Amino acid sequence: MASRQCKNSPDSFCYVCGYYVGDKHVSNKISKEAKYWEAYRLYFGMSIGDQEKAWAPHVICGSCRSNLEAWLRGSARVMPFAIPRVWREPQNHHDDCYFCMVNIAKYRKVKGRRALTYPSIPSSIAPVPHSETLPVPKPPANLEFNTECEDSISSETSDAEEEYLQSTSADRHYPSKRELDDLIRDLQLTKSAAELLTSRLSEWNLLRDDCKITAYRKRHLDYSVYFDVIQDLCYCKDVNGLFDAVGIEHDPSQWRHLLTVPPKVLKEFYFIMGTNIRQFHLLIQYK
Predict the structure, then answer these.
(1) CA 22 and chain centroid, separation
(2) 240 Cβ partners below 8 Å, 6+ apart?
(3) pTM metric for this prediction
């Protein structure tokens, strides 16, 4: 990478989580003699590396240090991710330098570091949270560990530690396209409202990759092939095909059919007679 200086120093960021470390936040120069060094290896299954490289952070924030050492002692406190931030040598300062891309202009206090935007790029891959396939590891039972008091860590870390205290059952859930479709249908949103909702959720990084903002502009086309219009009447010409398209098995004995035909709009409802299949609602508008 070019030799010009980065906008922010690499040592302004925690090696473990990648969060910005402000002047008022407690951080520690990474040391092989520290207890968190061994805790890092046991928790993540890898060793702290690249400490001889200028492009890697050389500090650990108070939250990560405290949580790693507490876990090693057998405490219920754990790290919020199964894989820590992974560092590689940046290739440029434009779109592959973590320290240039993080804008710290809005940083005011320790808790404010969570509001910053932290990219995941080839030279700095974001942490991966715990999941069913990446559970919280168990600390070694027979490891000799001197249970020193945490007084060596300043009380200034307390606010930051609150960010990381979470149970494994509180993992965030990111809706899939099918789940988003169900929500939009339950809320009876119009196409424009559905597109707006998807756009906002996408901006906040709360959706999976299969959720596309523009998918709802022509959502009626997916089902229009199962309908036909004769003068003022719109009707379903392929009931079995329609049910297959929405992923529901069509058993006529379980469903009853109701048609209402107000001017210019036809609503076609299928109501479940039992309780084992969800209600299906379809609205077709035509000129």
Answers:
(1) 25
(2) 250
(3) 0.51
Distance of CA 247 to the CA centre of its chain: 27
| Nearest alpha carbon to residue 57 among 11, 98, 8 | 11
Distances in Å between the Cα of 222 and the Cα atoms of 80, 218, 232, 245, 282 are: 40, 8, 22, 8, 12
- By the 8 A CB rule, do 61 and 16 touch? yes
Match 């890092």 to its residue by tokens: 40
User: What is the rounded distance in angstroms from the CA atom of residue 28 to the CA atom of residue 59?
Assistant: 5
Residues forming a β-bridge with 124: 87, 121
CA distances from 189 to 109, 197, 198, 201, 216 (A): 40, 9, 11, 15, 10
Single-letter code of the amino acid located at 98: Y
The percent helix, strand, coil of the chain (3-state, each to 5) is 30, 15, 55
Position of tokens 């009707």?
235
Of 94, 22, 91, which Cα lies nearest the Cα of 59? 22
CB atoms within 10 A of CB 239: 14
Digit-coded pLDDT (tens) for 63-99:
899 999 999 999 889 999 999 999 999 999 988 999 9
